[in-house]
Amino acid sequence: MLFAAYWSLAVPVSGKIVGLSRLGSAVSFVFLMNVVPPIISGPIGSAILATTTRNLGTSQETPEAYRYLIIFTGLVNVCAGLIVAIVRIRLFRGFIA
Questions:
Q1: Residue 69 near residue 48 (C-beta atoms within 8 A)
Q2: What is the CA radius of gyration of the chain?
Q3: pTM for the full predicted model
């Protein structure tokens, strides 16, 4: 639901950042970088869940086992938002257009 804005704005924003002469390479790079997170997120989540259940001595079916996985997911989203805000401020010399 929220990724429609991302996919529809990937090409125009890439064009604004790198220019039309290098747009093809930039869009290819952006779309290629969308492959990496799904590949590595499964093992990271499994490792966090396994470590949590081992350290707490609980089963994977309990809500306590997923606590740190949820915290990690939230922190990743917050960090991504901060990075986007910093890039926005540096590119456009302000947060609001």
A1: yes
A2: 18
A3: 0.62
